[in-house]
Design a protein that fits this description.
Length: about 800
């Protein structure tokens, strides 16, 4: 359309066409790398301009502003800041695994510092960049006009380095993005050589075959990569390489150093790729200020030119590995790298698998070798042709001289030589240009040797061009040479995450505590200071249970109707339940205030092989596998079906070979093997454990038999005694048992019983709210059918109604 002409168009159509043009321009000409050389247009133009300026690794540096101006004026008519930023990134050893630009001056840092102004910094090509540009002058790649059609620029570089995988790439286009991680040059070369060696069976080459050489990304900043997100899970690196897309977990490399006997520090020596160190330090400091990470006393950056060193000093009371786990969880010390291997193939964006990326590069290198060989063959033929003319002249030297002498002009001499000796224009001109010194015998020998060498070269190149296998062999040899010159050791370690995976429990400090539950339903945890917490003589709320636990354990609360709920102990408030300091179970668990708590139990996460043994007031017992318990949930679960008129009373942990004791208020006890009660599912009811002949009789205790222990029984009138467990014979389930106590007066029954050692603390709770803590040795050691001795003084009308012994930890 001529300038000045106005044409009406549909705006909807025009917007679609214009936006599509814009999108394709961004995709093809700006944001995505070419799969062959791994470069975006601006990067390619920078390297070519520096090559054109003669900025070789052995030449002096040149001002960055001069280089940027060259790129802008000749090839890339965009903003100078964008060009300088691209050049600076190619000089950063923390951005590129193998920097392509050798910079002098401040080109930025891992702390996020920006490069100095381009008028201050200087640059030249890095040695490895010369491999990217090698053979560029041998017609190995196509050239295209620059933006104003005054110059030519390469559309792709020969790239003797597999730059796409070695240095990676990242960019955001329109509707798509690329994020290719850097890799180790030696490993990539090995994988390429492996593919060349198996060229005829490429279809059979798998990702697993390639990963025997390429272990995974190799980031310039080091760090640690994890293959699997969970034990036995999918290999995320293999999945990403096989699909061209995936996510890889990268973690900082850190270790713990001992400062003094009881103090430690965490030292971070490598960071995940593209993590800003200054921002990381600020993030850690903020978490400490907010109280989300505890135990850090000092944080300082000791990094220097030799590498990263971030020091985190800890208090004496914290576990270093737990602090480190929290740092991984809450800071960028653990990051996720999104792998998207999107690159241009034949000018179109393609999602590449690892195999496809390697294959595309190998095909490119074969084209380069073929075109280079064709160029060298043409030059060799041209030179051989000239040498043939020179040898002809030397063989007829006198005639040649005579012919030239008789010619009036240079043109006539050239014509006469061509006519007489059947020479070409180029040969005749070469004879005319030949200096007289070439007539010496030694020079003649040199020409003959050069001609023979050119003939051998021509035969070699002809054979090479006829054989694809020979071309592949050349590519293989060149890759091996590149590997020898530039390959280095891997920086990023690849581990299987199953060996170091952190669970939620790993982030919880493993501290011993006491868990206290009161009769009214208050629950709290008390720091373990060695001895059980003291129960006052007049508690505000009578104690129901006192259990030894760890902050990593789970507390199970049992209601009278069999409803049960679990709660993590580390989330319990600190306090003393019987002093009214705690939180009601209904505010912590899905149980309601209408539920009546009757028992509590602690289960560690590592315990999954045992059983939960239950007993009701009417003597029903049940055994449930611990593995069947649902754990912490937003809903309660029914652990046992309760008959009308009965209530759940006790819960204990057994280990499949244990024996249990049921004690009744009538003074009888039965001992039987737990295996007589088959395991049942959660909602089921139980089976009878003891036969009670008196309608008023009820179970007052469930105990697990322990070696070298006694059974302590306490009557309602405060009399107590201990009897060795060896005096209780093992019987069959659902018997009447044996007599375990006599009573001093009619109407008195047993209040409770415990399996104890002599030093076991025992809390006696009375009906009117009094409590007394005694040692088990306060009760005399006597035979079964005896009354015992009074160990608590009761007020008139009061009686003992509960006997509380601290429940040992299930693992102990």
């Amino acid at each position: 359309m001529e300038i000045g002409t106005v044409r009406q168009v549909d705006i909807d159509t025009e917007m679609q066409v214009a936006y599509l043009d814009y999108a394709m321009s961004v995709i093809v000409s700006r944001a995505l790398p070419d799969a062959r050389d791994g470069l975006k247009p601006v990067q390619r133009r920078i390297l070519y301009a520096m090559h054109d300026m003669g900025l070789r690794p052995d030449t002096p540096y040149k001002k960055s502003a001069r280089i940027v101006g060259e790129v802008l004026g000749k090839y890339h008519p965009h903003g100078d800041a964008a060009v300088y930023e691209a050049m600076a990134r190619m000089a950063q050893d923390f951005s590129l695994r193998y920097p392509l630009v050798d910079g002098q001056g401040n080109f930025g840092s891992v702390d996020g510092d920006r490069p100095a102004a381009m008028r201050y910094t200087e640059a030249r090509l890095a040695p490895i960049a010369t491999e990217m540009l090698a053979d560029l002058d041998k017609e190995t790649v196509d050239f295209a006009p620059n933006f104003d059609d005054t110059l030519q620029e390469p559309t792709v570089l020969p790239a003797a380095i597999p730059n796409l995988l070695v240095n990676g790439s990242s960019g955001i286009a329109v509707g798509m993005a690329t994020s290719i991680p850097p890799h180790n040059l030696g490993e990539v070369c090995d994988a390429l050589i492996y593919m060349l060696d198996h060229w005829r069976k490429l279809d059979d080459v798998t990702v697993e075959d390639l990963m025997r050489h390429i272990k995974g990304p190799d980031f310039p900043t080091g760090g640690v990569i994890y293959r699997r997100m969970e034990e036995g899970g999918e290999d995320v690196i293999a999945h990403a390489y096989g699909q061209g897309r995936g996510k890889i977990t990268v973690r900082a490399r850190a270790h713990v150093e001992e400062m003094t006997r009881s103090r430690h520090r965490i030292v971070v020596t490598e960071l995940p790729y593209q993590v800003n160190k200054s921002n990381l330090i600020e993030r850690i400091a903020q978490l400490v200020r907010d109280g989300r990470i505890e135990g850090i006393t000092d944080l300082r950056d000791e990094s220097d030119r030799h590498g990263c060193r971030l020091v985190i000093e800890l208090t004496r009371t914290v576990e270093p590995q737990q602090v480190l786990a929290e740092l991984f969880r809450l800071t960028p010390m653990e990051s996720t790298f999104s792998l998207i291997m999107l690159a241009l193939v034949n000018g179109e964006p393609r999602l590449l698998t690892l195999k496809k990326a390697l294959l595309t590069y190998l095909e490119h290198r074969q084209v380069i070798v073929r075109r280079r060989s064709q160029y060298e063959l043409a030059r060799a033929r041209e030179r051989a042709h000239i040498l043939e003319g020179l040898l002809t002249a030397l063989d007829h030297l006198d005639e040649v001289i005579e012919t030239i002498r008789r010619s009036r002009t240079t043109d006539s001499a050239r014509t006469n030589l061509r006519r007489k000796f059947k020479l070409s224009q180029a040969q005749a001109q070469a004879i005319l240009d030949m200096p007289l010194k070439r007539l010496a015998a030694l020079e003649r020998r040199k020409i003959q040797d050069e001609y023979k060498e050119k003939q051998r070269l021509i035969k070699h190149l002809q054979a090479l061009l006829k054989s694809p296998k020979r071309i592949r062999d050349v590519v293989r040899d060149e890759l091996a040479a590149v590997r020898t010159r530039y390959a280095d050791a891997r920086r990023t370690q690849v581990l299987d995450v199953g060996k170091v995976q952190l669970t939620a429990a790993d982030l919880i400090p493993d501290e011993p505590v006491w868990v206290a539950v009161s009769r009214r339903g208050l629950v709290a945890r008390i720091p373990d200071e060695g001895a059980p917490p003291r129960v006052p003589s007049r508690p505000k709320d009578a104690p129901l249970a006192l259990l030894t636990a760890s902050t990593r354990d789970t507390l199970y609360l049992f209601a009278a109707d069999g409803q049960t709920a679990a709660f993590p102990i580390h989330q319990l408030p600190e306090g003393v339940a019987w002093e009214g300091v705690g939180t009601h179970y209904a505010d912590l668990t899905p149980l309601t205030r209408r539920d009546t708590l009757v028992a509590a139990l602690v289960l560690p996460p590592s315990l999954s092989e045992g059983y939960l043994f239950l007993a009701t007031r009417q003597g029903v017992v049940k055994r449930v596998a611990l593995a069947d318990l649902p754990g912490v949930s937003s809903e309660p679960f029914l652990v046992i079906g309760i008959e009308h008129g009965d209530t759940l009373g006790w819960a204990a942990v057994t280990m499949s070979e244990d024996e249990v004791l049921l004690v009744t208020s009538a003074g009888r006890a039965i001992r039987f093997r737990e295996q007589e009660v088959r395991p049942m599912g959660l909602p089921a009811g139980g089976v009878m454990g003891v036969k009670m002949t008196d309608a008023e009789d009820r179970v007052v205790a469930l105990a697990v038999v322990r070696p070298r222990s006694d059974l302590l029984v306490v009557a309602e009138d405060g009399r107590a005694k201990r009897t060795p467990l060896s005096e209780y014979p093992t019987q069959s389930r659902y018997g009447q048992g044996v007599i375990t106590a006599r009573f001093a007066a009619p109407g008195v029954g047993l209040a409770g019983a415990c399996v104890v050692q002599a030093s076991t603390p025992v809390v006696l709770v009375t009906e009117k709210g009094a409590a007394k803590t005694v040692r088990a040795r306060s009760a005399p050691r006597m035979g079964r059918p005896t009354q015992g001795r009074r160990i608590i003084a009761l007020r008139k009308g009061d009686r003992v109604y509960n006997v509380l012994c601290p429940v040992p930890h299930p693992i102990s």
